[in-house]
Write a structure and sequence with these properties.
Radius of gyration: 13 Å
Largest sheet: 5 strands, antiparallel
Strand content: 25-35%
Number of domains: 1
Order of helices and strands: EEEEHEHH
Number of helices: 3
Low-confidence stretches: none
Helix content: 25-40%
Structural class: alpha+beta
Number of strands: 5
Distance between the termini: 18 Å
């Protein structure tokens, strides 16, 4: 899905208020959450590279919210739509 902020998916089934945005940089895929109930999360969180998410898994972050397979699929579809 896409809106004015970019490509996103819903990381929690049934919760349409939480969105996970994805983008592709020259280095890797990055993620950024947005929560309708807490819009300040967007400014506070910033873009997070997937490599940092993998590293942070050691510290029990909610890594399941950052789904690389969904992100790759969204990005691939967006690129194909541009062609």
């Amino acid at each position: 899905m896409q809106d004015e902020k970019g490509l996103f998916y819903y990381p929690v089934l049934g919760n349409k208020k939480l969105k996970m945005y994805v983008r592709l940089t020259p280095e890797e895929v990055e993620f950024r959450p947005f929560d309708d109930d807490d819009p300040s999360l967007w400014d506070e969180h910033g873009w997070v590279p997937y490599s940092a998410i993998l590293e942070a898994k050691k510290f029990n972050i909610p890594a399941h919210l950052y789904d690389i397979e969904i992100a790759i699929r969204l990005l691939r579809d967006a690129i194909e739509d541009q062609e």
